[in-house]
Amino acid sequence: MSASAALDPNALEQFASGPARAPAPAARVRAGSVRPRLAVVKSDAPAILAAITAAALDPAVPVEKMEFMRRLYLEARTSAARSAYTVAMNAAQAAMAPIAANAVNSDFDSQYATYAALDRAMRPIYTAHGFTVGFTTEPSDLQRHQRVVIVLNHVDGHGETHRADFPADGLGDDGAPAQTLIHATASAFTYAQRYLLCLAFNIAVAKDSDGNIVAPPPEAITGGQYAELVFLLDSTATDEAEFARLLKVTNLAALPSHQFEHAKRLLQARKAA
């Protein structure tokens, strides 16, 4: 879906004049804050914890039973955290679109998306769904390689890591020295960030059918603007995916910045209707 596609005036008017549905109490958050958009995952952990609390007050309950209940609680909590992670990952990936390549490697005649471009497109989405992303390094078993690790943590407690080894020898395609080792290490880390971030969220870097670089998309709204629209979506019980389709964008976080005020007015009008 293209951000430049013509908007349907009738559909926009119908949306703005339609009555807003009452928001769920949990949706009432401060505008401008980036609130994780988390699905509720059912868990037996609260019930087990309540049983443990009650058992702790009964001196007749044996220690072995308390230990068994404790293990059940930890297993239930771990299972719920994993489920919440999967649900959030599904929602985040559904909101992400292929990202256009915005840089050229002249040595190999190839195009790629810079880490800055990936971060700008992906961070507002994955943080809104409760993820944090970090990178670290580990010793590599391969000579002149750097092992880089991406760490994904979710607010409900589950985390995952992905790691890979990247050449950092400073040699060119012909085997001759082309970089200092410091430069090579920095280049390997930057490349690893791009590679692992796309790997973790299963994101493709898009090119056109001729293999040429895709025209850079217009500047998207900021994370704060996205959060403001999310607040209005919640306060009018409007589905984010449906609103994005109305505005002819693949996902709301990719909305061009020049359309922000228009989108905001539509939601405000719907809220007032």
Give me the secondary-structure topology.
Blueprint: H1 9-17, H2 45-56, H3 63-95, E1 99-100, E2 103-105, E3 110-112, H4 115-128, E4 131-138, E5 145-154, E6 159-167, H5 181-201, E7 205-206, H6 223-235, H7 240-246, H8 260-272
Parallel strand pairs: 1-7
Antiparallel strand pairs: 2-3, 4-5, 5-6
How would you describe this protein?
Helix content is 45%, strand content 14%. It is built from 8 helices and 7 strands; from the N terminus they run αααβββαβββαβααα. The strands form 3 sheets. It has a 3-stranded antiparallel β-sheet with strand order 4-5-6. Strands 1-7 form a two-stranded parallel sheet. β5 and β6 form a beta hairpin. α2 runs antiparallel to α3. The radius of gyration is 24 Å and the shape is flat. 23% of the residues are buried. About 11% of the residues have low confidence. It comes from Caulobacter segnis.
Produce a short descriptive summary.
This protein is an alpha+beta fold. Helices cover 45% and strands 14% of the residues.
